[in-house]
Amino acid sequence: MDLKDFRKYAHELADWMADFMENIEDYPVRSQVKPGEIESRLPENPPQKGESFEDIFKDFKDIIMPGMTHWQHPRFFAYFPANSSYPSVLAEMLTAALGAQCMIWQTSPSATELEERVMEWLKKMTGLPDYFEGVIQDTASTSTLVSILTAREKLSGYHINDNGFSGNLKFTAYCSEETHSSIEKDIKIAGLGAGNLRKIEVDESYAIIPEKLEAAVKKDLASGYKPCCVIATIGTTGSTAIDPLRPVGEICKKYGIWLHVDAALAGTALILPGYRWMIDGIEYVDTFVFNPHKWMFTNFDCSAYFVRDREALVKTFEIHPEYLKTKEGKLVNNYRDWGIQLGRRFRALKLWFVIRTFGIDGIRQTIESHIRMAQSIKERIEKAPDFELLAPVPLNTVCFRYKPEGIKDEEDLNEMNARLLEELNATGKVYFTHTKLRGRYTIRFVVGQTYVKPRHVDEGWDLIVNTARKIR
């Protein structure tokens, strides 16, 4: 392919992308293919000679597209969103065209300095304290791992990076029973050991119980352990439960424990001043993360990570091989030393495009509309005699189940709701996912796709009701 062909096909692809976005409701939300179906249509061996772009793009449409689940469909109500938007896609195109590796300031000064600026913007937009400094990581799970590693090094006097764990160091970490599964994975990677992660009991709203946390800390101290870190969650994945930050923070301060906050989805809601109550107690927090790629209309991946003690972060991750030394030295931020990755994409560009295109007002209006739509579903469930709300709805996630009169056995209800979920998703018209809350099979209705409208939510609810009552 030469530049002339590139120009031609780039225009064709731009038109195809615009048509796809315009007509996305014509596609099934969840892919309808069976396991192995896509791979069976792909040749076992790579081509010996180059193929035409026309043939490649035809196979993309014929083979790849049927196997895609459409996260940008306005009736995608599953998981938490991995959002996109028109300005974000355009910025991603520019990022790909530039092809920059933004590991240090010198390799692209604009990438570093734009990242500094947009992280300052996010801090102001969300009401985080001025003393926090920010950096873009790829995901919240990586950000949490970075936090745990920093806590580990600070507690050990930066000993473990140099010498590894000794038999005398028995670190413990703490989170709620509802904390994301990536926390346990991060604890394993950090070398603390899954057996040293204490999962603390939650209350009726699925938030961590501070008294139970303190009791666990005291027990570990009495047994010769060293409490290393607490991971509090603002907006758990199961039900968007919000851990009480102030009492948790007071416990961390009392016992000298590092406090990290995972606000992957819910952090975006802090742009609404009325939701700043979620970070009451932020002064006790050492690190904080949320994902603009979840609810701020920015293409995956883009995770906003904030740290109180920049020196501890850099000291944990910095490296100084001769080939990475530059004359700018400490005059600039070299973000290769602010996390796990050495190589870094130019993620700040898409975030800059999104914030400037929507503006703070536009972002607020969209988030508010999503919350209103979720609250409307909550109200319908509360009024329906054969549906049951299973968790509070502080934000945009509604947890519920179908519970017709006369069926009381929990296993029967679990099986019925599992069947309901599968039948809903098999239609291709919607996509929902589930969790289990106190052993109860729970369907999650998440309203967060960038361009979702009330009619999409209404259509989703009507389909739930009609499908459920047919099953009954």
Mean pLDDT: 94
Task: Please provide the ordered H/E string of secondary-structure elements.
Answer: HHHHHEHHEHEHEHEEHEHHEEHEEH
Shape: globular
Estimate the strand proportion: 5-15%
Going by helix content, strand content and strand pairing, the class is alpha/beta
Tell how many strands the DSSP assignment holds: 11
CATH topology of the domain at 93-353: Aspartate Aminotransferase, domain 2
Distance between termini? 58 Å
Q: How many helical elements?
A: 15
Strand order of the largest sheet: 1-7-6-5-4-2-3
Radius of gyration from CA coordinates: 24 Å
Top-tier CATH class of the domain at 93-353: Alpha Beta
Helix content: 40-55%
Low-confidence stretches: none
The named CATH superfamily of the domain at 93-353: Type I PLP-dependent aspartate aminotransferase-like (Major domain)
CATH architecture of the domain at 93-353: 3-Layer(aba) Sandwich
Q: What's the main sheet like?
A: 7 strands, mixed
